Amino acid sequence: MNPISHGSPGNRETILDPDTYFLCQRCTACCKWPGDVRLETEEVPRIAAFLDLTEEEFLARFTRLRTNRQGLSLLEKENHECIMLDGNSCVIHPVKPSQCAGFPNKWNFPGWRQVCEAKAIPFAEARERGLTK
Ligand code: SF4
Ligand code: SF4
Predict the structure, then answer these.
(1) Ligand 2 atom nearest residue 6's Cα
(2) Which terminus of the chain has a smaller tally of CB atoms within 10 A, N or C?
(3) pTM to 2 decimals?
């Protein structure tokens, strides 16, 4: 598997570094990496509703099986970008999958700092600014 794949997020509910918060700069690099964008079952209704689609329509138009066939992934474009990336914006940003929302603070991979432009700020500052939910 590509070392900068979307895959293998592990436990995505735990903040990895209690002192530092990495603030996304919307560089979109993580939306362009080849690999699965994992979609959890409970995320389907809210994303479908956000797109004003039925769950069946959303699943048929925008999802596929994960590479390991154990769960769903968002589709990718021919250039490997996520299907939900429109220019530099995520079409479903307010309801994006937890895999997307959790990177890089709740999961990452060796070498992630070389490809992610997130800005490191003190965790206390992030908490004060309401960024840590
Ligand atoms: S690679 Fe890092 S800075 Fe760029 S969009 Fe993803 S999380 Fe944000
Ligand atoms: S759902 Fe949005 S944030 Fe997640 S990979 Fe796709 S474009 Fe990026």
Answers:
(1) 5
(2) C
(3) 0.87
Which tokens belong to 104? Answer: 């890089």
- Residue 31 CB–ligand 2 contact under 6 Å: yes
Nearest to 116 by CA among 12, 26, 18: 26
Number of helices and strands in the chain (H, E): 4, 7
- pLDDT tens for 90-127 read 999 999 999 999 999 999 988 899 999 999 999 999 99
27 or 11, which is more confident: 27
Residues near ligand 1 (Cβ within 6 A): 24-30, 103-104, 116-118
Scanning the structure block, which residue is given the tokens 């299907």? 83
* Distance in Å, CA 84 to ligand 1 centroid: 15
